[in-house]
Amino acid sequence: MNRNTPKVTGASSLAMAVAMGLAVLTTAPATANDQLVELAKDPANWVMTGRDYNAQNYSEMTDINKENVKQLRPAWSFSTGVLHGHEGTPLVVGDRMFIHTPFPNTTFALDLNEPGKILWQNKPKQNPTARTVACCDVVNRGLAYWPGDDEVKPLIFRTQLDGHIVAMDAETGETRWIMENSDIKVGSTLTIAPYVIKDLVLVGSSGAELGVRGYVTAYDVKTGEKKWRAFATGPDEELLLAEDFNAPNPHYGQKNLGLETWEGDAWKIGGGTNWGWYAYDPEVDLFYYGSGNPAPWNETMRPGDNKWTMAIWGREATTGEAKFAYQKTPHDEWDYAGVNVMMLSEQEDKEGNMRKLLTHPDRNGIVYTLDRTNGDLISADKMDDTVNWVKEVQLDTGLPVRDPEFGTRMDHKARDICPSAMGYHNQGHDSYDPERKVFMLGINHICMDWEPFMLPYRAGQFFVGATLTMYPGPKGDRQNALGLGQIKAYDAISGEMKWEKMERFSVWGGTMATAGGLTFYGTLDGFIKARDSDTGDLLWKFKLPSGVIGHPMTYKHDGRQYVAIMYGVGGWPGVGLVFDLADPTAGLGSVGAFKRLQEFTQMGGGVMVFSLDGESPYSDPNVGEYAPGEPA
Amino acid sequence: MLVDFRQVCGVGVAVLALASPALADTTNLRVCASTKDAPFSDAQGRGFENKIAQVLADEMGATLDLVMLEKDAIYLVRDGIEKDLCDVLIGVDAGDERLLTTQPYYRSGYAFVTRQDRNFEGDKWQDVDQEGFDTFSYRLHSPAETILKYTGRYEYNLIYQASLTNFEDRRNKYTQVEASRVITEVADGGADLAIVFAPEAARYVRDSREPLRMTLITNEIERSDGVIIPLQYSQSVGVSKTHPELLGPIEQALQSGKARIDAILTEEGIPLLPSS
């Protein structure tokens, strides 16, 4: 069954036809990614979720710095009109800010010269069923920008919870094309931020909880034509494995494992969706991302390593071909979905060789650093010394050495497994400071009890389940259910933490580092904070209208540096608050872990922008004033 | 009907547990049943096993103490028998190792249910794989899942099935499709075919305004690891292992009340198989 028929509606059908016509005329090789690289070189812009292809969330700007950060004040703000969790961050290109929202996934464009006026908004009509299909709140992680060429003007891409990918004219907001990437009728939704490489837009998939078989798909930016699709499980030709796949590291496994590491046809509903973040190295011409947890959720139902779920992938953008994949958690037992951020850096390894690296703080509590040209495993360190499901990750074999005491196998009640199913690190987009050579990690400090059970019934029926309870890790305050998060500065070469601080709740949304020596992040209880990147000292904070699960960004407009962040509590840690759940084991135990969150924040949704002394276009009070008789 | 009927939950449970004697009192037949297990048992006591429980009590000259748990029936052994709220379950697989079981009092099997006008033919589990039959309703956690997996029909159908539980998160919670829903889906055309343990479906097939066809499946599944998954099951009365003295009187009651029990099963419309 073809689930990928293009959907063209009303006014956009003409645009679609025009676009397809134009595509035929296109013969010159793509240069759009060069343009994106150029645009990202200007620190005034923030052209993709991780700022540039390195996904470092790092800004070279120093106007706001350790000395003056105390003077940061609100400059202006924008309400999205949507409650629920706001993940990700806005984009800024030139004079424009592009803002996404959770379901109903409205897109806004603001004029930075006069941010009080909405340039355009594009609000899709979506099948409301999407809301029930989504597992963990109705979040969305952001937008992508394609800079345009001689034939097609710049585009903004968004994903919709109902499984569609949409291209909009960045100038007018008009829908250019819309494609069904994931069929909500089969439980597949979309929450990931799309990602532009060359003239392709990449989209992942969500819904492993419901047995969706994960894939990443590339579409032609101009027409929406599907160029390739690569699955996480199944036959090699559907995984799009390159001829020399994993040749430098054959011990990671090579051919036919997407079938052989599953029982029967279980790979068809094996999960491995990807709803996290991408990074791209234009020189190596590989992009990187993580595939998520295997399905079904209960491990006893799916014997085997379940490849290639839980893997770090390096694929060629043009063909989708995989050059390497490294499976971090073979046969996952804990729901440690491996979709987290991939941050690219160039650093000297312990032997003093300059290497192109990829660093990935995984949900399983290990920070992995790989050589991103070939997949070599360089380091695998515990994010916190309380990680206990694994004793160590062997660098030569790549295998985790498990501690059976903290497994979730049947007939064993595992207590105090660290991390919990939420991971010590979840979807937050973290940052890398290339001057200090440290990664700023926002961390969950949450552990869990996991009690599996098997109940037989009659006529061959039986139920396999588990009861999960989550609570603060050993360094938190278990009595009072606080101390659920940490923020740390991590050196991937030495494996050491330069500094670390505890937080009341998880640092769920991620961090941003700047050359001003600052690390910014938002907290679930609704603060944006700035710390000294050298010491971790807290230098500034501001109370936002609602909790944060997105990451900060910075841009420059009219010579002034701004820091922006989305607020709007929700997502997995907020499910209890958002859906008013009381059972502590609901949300896989999230409700119990975050039971005190409601004492600190309530739902909201918007963007808050800061500048030194709160200077903004409206510092001149006449800007944007109503003037009778003037054209609107 | 003389049923000493108790809705037991919370405080009621505690009181009852405290009152329970060390040795089972054969003048008081303590039977656990679920409020959510129609057609076997329901909150109003209209399940056919609720009726059989009364027959047994009558034949034993005992008073029926029907302990109703507001839980799915899958929890009755763990949360009823093992917590000493009751001593007896009316319908369990013969030989269920968690309990002492009587001689089986009936035998039935998994069945296909279709609309009569669909002219479905076939009585082997492999026969679900037919052109024009694409959507399947079934009860979760049952061999119906194995049948669909082994015929390559499971994956496509997964989300239709999830819609029957309103996409409830199945990760760490027991979810189930009501047996009546499995059948009404077929009658209403939502599902092309139901795969269901016939006793669970019988009364709904019988009462459907849309004429339905129920066909017992005649073969068994050999799993890829060689394990046989039967599709036909003998049903017995289950007795708590701590009260073996109850087994004899219940066996006797099954014998003396056989005609009445058979009448209940026949009235229910359950297709019966010879005891094996």
Describe the fold and architecture.
- The complex is a heterodimer of chains A (about 625) and B (about 280).
- Chain A is mainly beta and about 625 residues long.
- Chain A has one domain: Methanol Dehydrogenase, Chain A.
- In chain A, about 5% of the residues lie in helices and about 35% in strands.
- Chain A contains 7 helices and 38 strands.
- In chain A, the strands form 10 sheets. Chain A has a 5-stranded mixed β-sheet with strand order 1-32-33-34-35, with no helix packed on it. In chain A, strands 2-38-37-36 form a 4-stranded antiparallel β-sheet, with no helix packed on it. Chain A has a 4-stranded antiparallel β-sheet with strand order 3-4-5-6, with no helix packed on it.
- In chain A, a hairpin with a 4-residue loop joins strand 8 and strand 9.
- Chain B is of the alpha+beta class and about 280 residues long.
- Chain B has 2 domains: about 5-105 and about 235-270, Periplasmic binding protein-like II (D-Maltodextrin-Binding Protein, domain 2, 3-Layer(aba) Sandwich), CATH 3.40.190; about 110-230, D-Maltodextrin-Binding Protein, domain 2.
- Chain B is built from 9 helices and 14 strands.
- In chain B, a hairpin with a 3-residue loop joins strand 3 and strand 4.
- In chain B, helix 2 packs across helix 8, helix 2 (about 50-60) packs antiparallel against helix 9 (about 260-270) and helix 6 crosses helix 7 (about 200-205).
- Chain B is globular.
- Chain B starts with a strand and ends in an 8-residue tail after the last helix.
- The chains are: A mainly beta (about 625), B alpha+beta (about 280).
- Chain B: Keywords: Signal.
- Chain B: This is Solute-binding protein family 3/N-terminal domain-containing protein.
In short:
With 632 residues, chain A is mainly beta.
- Total E-strand runs of chain A: 38
Number of strands of chain B: 14
Integer average pLDDT of chain A: 92
> What's the Cα radius of gyration of chain A?
23 Å
**Number of helices, where a helix is a run of at least 4 consecutive DSSP H or I residues of chain A:** 7
Helix content of chain B: 25-40%
Largest sheet of chain A: 5 strands, mixed
In which range does the helix fraction of chain A lie? under 10%
Strand content of chain A: 25-35%
Second-tier CATH architecture of chain A? 8 Propeller
